Amino acid sequence: MASLLLSLSVVGLLISTYFTAVAYRWVRPDVRWVPSFCRMDEHTCASIVFTPQARVFLLPNSVLGQLYYVGIFFGVVFEWIGGQAPPPGSYVAASALTVCLGLYLGYALLFINRVACPLCFASHGINLTIFLILVVPT
To answer: Cα–Cα distance between 89 and 71 in angstroms, integer?
Structure first.
């Protein structure tokens, strides 16, 4: 499970970093070095980066995502999670909060902003998978 947690945290970090770079206008949403299946379209993913729902806790949600994924990554590397012992409650709590926020953001994507953002849903799926790994005994 540790390798799966590492992989998920790296992919989540890449997605979050891309969203952060777009949110702060460090890169354009359609930069050529990003694979075409990940590029944000002005009418889909890029349009939601600047909505009120994209900053639930003042910072862009993607910045919080970066912190979360780095925490998961180092938690696995230093064997705070992913080992034989149950993960510390702080990881489970952070993961549960992330999933709850993802439910709200998924609702906002579909019913408030009316945007189907594949990268957003991929991140929410990654968050749910990490949560399940942390709480379901192996």
So the answer is: 13
Q: How far, in Å, CA of 60 to CA of 124, rounded?
A: 15
- 124 in Cβ contact with 105 (< 8 Å): yes
**What is the model's pTM?**
0.88
Q: How many CA atoms lie within 13 A of 38 on its CB side?
A: 17
Look at residues 126, 79, 73 and name the one whose alpha carbon lies nearest to residue 99.
Answer: 126
Beta bridge partners of 59: 57
All structural domains of the chain with their residue ranges: 2-135
Q: CATH assignment of 2-135?
A: 1.20.1440.130
pLDDT tens per residue, range 43-98: 667 778 888 888 988 899 999 999 999 999 999 998 878 766 667 888 999 999 99
Query: What is the helix, strand, coil percentage profile of the chain, to 5?
Result: 65, 0, 35
One-letter identity of residue 82: G
Question: Which residues lie across from 26 on neighbouring strands?
Answer: none
Distance CA 112, CA 67 (A): 26
